[in-house]
Amino acid sequence: MHELSIAMSIVEMAEEESQRSGGLRVTSVHLRLGALAGVVKTALLSSYELACEQSSVNGSKLVIEDVPGVVFCSACNARRPVSESEWFRCSTCGSLASELVSGKELEVVSLEVEE
Question: In 3-state terms, the chain is what percent helix, strand and coil (to 5)?
């Protein structure tokens, strides 16, 4: 379960940012998670709670924004969403997509803090 190591990295990063900002308490960590990132959202949420124990960010929440998979179809000359059953194929014409536009994100975008 690599979600635990990801969660531990997120906690470590949040702790470092908290220290850099003078010890402000982190209340929430906001994360963008792509549908193609290879991370199970529920496992990451559980792992985050576990990783927070015995840390300065204990009690904070992990807020996840789901990012859908989107490809660029050169046949249609358009961006198209993809579903799990049709990865990398245009949802309109069925052509193989030439470019993955979004869906692989795994990035911390902000922290909420309080004194």
Answer: 30, 35, 35
User: What residues does 61 pair with on adjacent strands?
Assistant: 28
Structural domain including 83 reads 3-114
User: Tokens 């309080």 belong to which residue?
Assistant: 114
Residues 4-24 have pLDDT tens digits of 999 999 999 999 999 998 888
CA distances (Å), 88 to each of 38, 75, 97, in order?
A: 15, 13, 5
Distance from C-alpha of 69 to C-alpha of 52, rounded to nearest angstrom: 29
Spell out the residues 6+ positions from residue 67 whose beta carbon is closer than 8 angstroms to its own: 32, 33, 34, 35, 102, 103, 105
pTM: predicted TM-score of the whole model, two decimal places: 0.87
Give tens-digit pLDDT for 22-78: 888 999 999 999 998 999 999 999 999 999 999 999 999 999 999 999 999 999 999
CATH number, domain at 8? 3.30.2320.80
